[in-house]
Amino acid sequence: MNKKLIALAVAAASISSVANAAEVYSDETSSLAVGGRFEARAVMQDNDAGDSKVNDKTRVRINVAGKTDITDSVYALGFWEGEYTDGSEVNNRHLNAGIGGDFGQIRYGKTDGSLGMITDFTDIMSYHGNEAGGKISAADRTGNNLAYVGSFDLGGNNLTVKANYVFEGDSNKDSREDGYSVGAIYAMDMGLAFGAGYGEQDGYEKESGADATGKQAFGAISYTYGDFYVAGLYQDTRNFQADKAQGYEFAAAYTYGKTVFVATYNYLEDKDNSVDLADSIAIDATHYFNKNFRTYASYKFNNLDSKDVGKAAASDEFVLGARYDF
């Protein structure tokens, strides 16, 4: 384990789900890889009656990635990933195809928006975190989505840019209409990285019920030094979590041998009504036995007031997990 594994939060130029995928077919021009994970997760939390309850959040993900060369510098690609939890139907997380080359990649279908790579600066926990990193549909993973991503070397530093446009009528997002998001990360060789992004989408509404455009802006910064990683995220939104919401997340990680320790603080506020939407401190430890198997424990200290949100929504949460990647 080294700083590059922790700094995956600021790489974000490709789909991380295929990192451990196994190639099952290849010839002179084409290849096909299969990967995924099995993840057992036991979530312990108090319910509204005050009783302690264990929820089984175990899941499995399977992905298939295909690639074929068109010319020496241009290729075509396709990617599918599904997730299944007990008692539910398969959720198609990704379902897209496109082309790539030195210019980057262009995909269409169900794929990631452009602001996930910004929230990834601080969204580094095995389970908790990212409570101040909620995104409008067009900036998150959604269908009917035309997306571009490119990564460029700038004399030892790296610039990653993403842009996407979501067309009206995505059946997975009900009334959501046209929207877009853009983002950029500038990562310096000395360990410092900066990220910023913006997104808009019609089909949201104000608290009064009037139609409105959801808008949000993110800014992030991180620094990696040896086995230490620290990052901060700021969000400002309109007509999404509230008519006006602002929040931030701070994250810190330390790698000791094969174990990574992470702590985060999340805060999100409805500015018009002076109501806390999120307020928590979370810690976790993840031990990597090898590149394929890890176990983790994660605890969230919830600072919300049960009088405002109910006992269950304000209770602390403890999670034990084991994950096998293939």
Automatic annotation (TrEMBL):
Domain of life per record: Bacteria
Any matching Pfam family: Porin_4
Keywords assigned by UniProt, alphabetized: Membrane, Signal
Membrane-related topology note: Multi-pass membrane protein
Record's keyword annotation contains DNA damage: no
InterPro entries with a match to the protein in the record: Gram-neg_bact_OMP, Gram_neg_porin_domain, Porin_dom_sf
Domain Porin: 7-305
Range of residues in the leader sequence: 1-21
Predominant location category: membrane
SUPFAM superfamilies: Porins
Keyword Signal: yes
Cellular component annotations (GO), alphabetically ordered: cell outer membrane
MF-aspect GO terms: porin activity
Cellular compartment(s): Cell outer membrane
Name under which the protein is recorded: OmpL_phopr porin-like protein L
Organism in which the protein naturally occurs: Photobacterium gaetbulicola Gung47
